[in-house]
Specification:
mainly alpha; two-stranded antiparallel ribbon; 4 helices
Length: 179
């Protein structure tokens, strides 16, 4: 990955927490896998379920910022594209004489506008990918790591043995005497 101006790369985890994740109940049933990543204090409480973790993340300011950045790009871009497409269709149906005007040789306005539809689709896809890479991917990856760490903490809390009859101290018994 290229270093971008003004950004600290050492503080950000760039790998994906779920990239090579095993499917549930596959591999390392005895807990011999790699140790879990350290969890920030107070990020997961005992008794948290997956839905609790995801709801807490969904309500977080970081998640709302990522969603806001997404909406601020997608809604105007979608509206602009649909208006451009609608204008092309309306012009083709209501102004055939305009669309039939030659531009260069046998190429007319309708052909140029139709090719412009293809070009604008590719430009919009490129702009979306660029916006996601520059404005949302890093924050979304940090959220994924937060969820992953909280899930790991919850799983570790579930694996901790609680007080059971096998681990509870019992009163000593004397032989031949009934309890």
């Amino acid at each position: 990955m290229e270093k971008q101006d003004g950004r600290e790369t050492a503080a950000v985890r760039l790998d994906d927490p779920w990239y090579e994740a095993l499917a549930s109940d596959w591999g390392e049933p005895d807990g011999s896998g790699p140790p879990p990543a350290p969890v920030p204090p107070g990020s997961a409480a005992d008794g948290d379920t997956d839905s609790d973790i995801y709801l807490r993340v969904q309500r977080s300011a970081a998640f709302q910022e990522v969603r806001g950045r997404y909406r601020r790009f997608v809604i105007p871009a979608s509206l602009a594209f649909f208006l451009w497409y609608f204008a092309y269709v309306v012009a083709a149906t209501t102004a055939p004489e305009l669309m039939a005007k030659p531009v260069v040789g046998a190429v007319n306005v309708a052909m140029v506008a139709g090719l412009g539809q293809f070009l604008s689709t590719f430009l919009l896809a490129w702009a979306y990918a660029r916006h996601a890479r520059l404005r949302r991917d890093r924050a979304a990856l940090e959220l994924r790591w937060a969820v992953f760490d909280q899930e790991q903490a919850r799983e570790q809390a579930e694996k901790r043995p609680g007080p059971t009859s096998a681990t509870m101290p019992t009163a000593p018994t004397t032989p031949g005497r009934a309890r």
